Amino acid sequence: MQANERREEAAADGAVITIHVKFGGQTFTLSLSPDCNCSELKALLQPLTNVLPRGQRLIFKGKVLADTASLRSVQLTNGSKVMLIASEGLHQGDGPVKKDAISVASILRKNPTSHQNQVNNAAITIEKTRAERWKLTGVAALSECHLKVVPDEVWNCGTSIRVLDLSSNWIQGLPSRIDCLKSLNKLYLNANDLSEERISWDGLSRLKSLTILSLNLNNLATLPSAVGDLISLRQLHIANNWLTCLPDELGRLNQLQILKAGNNRISLVTAGIGCCSSLIEIDLSSNHLVELPGTLGKLKNLKALYLSNNGLTSLPSTLFKMCKELSILDLRHTQLTNCVLRQIEGWAEFDERRRLKHQKQLDFRVGPSGVFDEGADDDHGQ
């Protein structure tokens, strides 16, 4: 029997209990039967919190409630307070919230004995509720919603939207209207069907507050020069595309800290990358690189460089000497041998940093990093 059916029967018998669920600075009040189990409670909480049931943990008196346990068995009574904790990656939706779920949850927030309240709340549409939630949280989560275009409700939210997640859909284009989201900080467009010519880069370039742009798993063959206009960008994720090079304008991103461009066809890295003075991590693994620009040595804040699965036979001569923060270097499946690396100035200092970091990982019982390791018997970088 579903939770709302149990609640209706319990209401008729006068056995409804009201509980208060705290989440994200808000308190949600629900009235339901004590015979409902915690799994049903989670289902009712989804449209209120936009947290998937499998991502919910309900805490009562310091204990995590099991899904199969009834509210009665865990001693939830009228007025009990429960805390909801959302698991990372399972909040803010995984597909559209169903209209009937919205209606049921909205009804439960009202006096369960008031039929008129039930009718009024049932008339609330999913579009209005969804848009209101986006405006309240600043997060529009639309991953895995089978979308072909960006919904109009997104544009109507305007400056309220700070995070827009459109990952894992069938979206083929990003219109110029994107520039109306002037407060947008993070834009996730992973795993769609986007090509560079169907993206309004002019619109994107006007998002001066954008700090994260994620375009992994699309059909990008080039990265337009307009990317250099995203002056606030701190993370750029463009892995698993068809890119063959990185534009010179990338060097204008002096706040960029993370560049992930693995699994492309990149054979040339612009010398302008040396102007990205804030870079901490670069991932160029699984590309077609045979050499790297000497300007990499200018990246004094660089800590991690991933270069596995490339055709590299050398590294910039100043890399170890100038990049004094570098402690992670992944050279697996390249042509670089330890004999070559030891000849590069600054190798000894880098090797000491690398070993120290590895030892710290062991001390904290973290497994091996899986990156560059000299090895006892192998003359190649691991």
List keywords for this structure.
Leucine-rich repeat, LRR (right-handed beta-alpha superhelix), alpha/beta, single chain, 14% strand, 5-stranded mixed β-sheet, 382 residues, 14 strands, 2 domains, Ubiquitin-like (UB roll), 24% helix, 10 helices, disordered N terminus, 9-stranded parallel β-sheet
The ordered H/E elements are HEEHEEEHHHEHEEHEEEEEHEHH
Question: What integer is the average pLDDT?
Answer: 83
Determine the CATH superfamily of the largest domain.
Ribonuclease Inhibitor
Shape: globular
Look up the CATH topology of the largest domain.
Leucine-rich repeat, LRR (right-handed beta-alpha superhelix)
End-to-end separation in angstroms reads: 57 Å
Report the sheet with the most strands, covering strand number, pairing sense and barrel closure. 9 strands, parallel
Q: What's the total helix number?
A: 10
Could you say what the CATH architecture of the largest domain is? Answer: Alpha-Beta Horseshoe
Family: Belongs to the SHOC2 family.
Pfam family, one: LRR_8
GO molecular function, one term: protein serine/threonine kinase activity
Domain Ubiquitin-like: 17-88
Task: Please tell me about this protein's structure.
The protein has 382 residues and is an alpha/beta fold. It folds into 2 domains: 3-122, Ubiquitin-like (UB roll); 145-363, Ribonuclease Inhibitor (Leucine-rich repeat, LRR (right-handed beta-alpha superhelix)), CATH 3.80.10. It has helices at 3-13, 38-49, 99-108, 115-122, 126-137, 152-157, 201-205, 319-322, 338-342, 347-363; strands at residues 17-23, 26-32, 56-60, 63-64, 81-86, 139-141, 163-165, 186-188, 212-214, 235-237, 258-260, 281-283, 304-306, 328-330. The strands form 2 sheets. A 9-stranded parallel sheet has the order 6-7-8-9-10-11-12-13-14. Strands 2-1-5-3-4 form a 5-stranded mixed sheet. Helix 6 (152-157) links the parallel strand 6 and strand 7. Helix 3 runs antiparallel to helix 4. The protein starts with a helix and ends in a 19-residue tail after the last helix. The model is unreliable at 1-8, 92-127 and 366-382 (pLDDT under 50). Keywords: Leucine-rich repeat, Repeat, Transferase. Leucine-rich repeat protein that likely mediates protein interactions, possibly in the context of signal transduction. One of its GO terms (molecular function) is protein serine/threonine kinase activity. Residues 17-88 form the Ubiquitin-like domain.
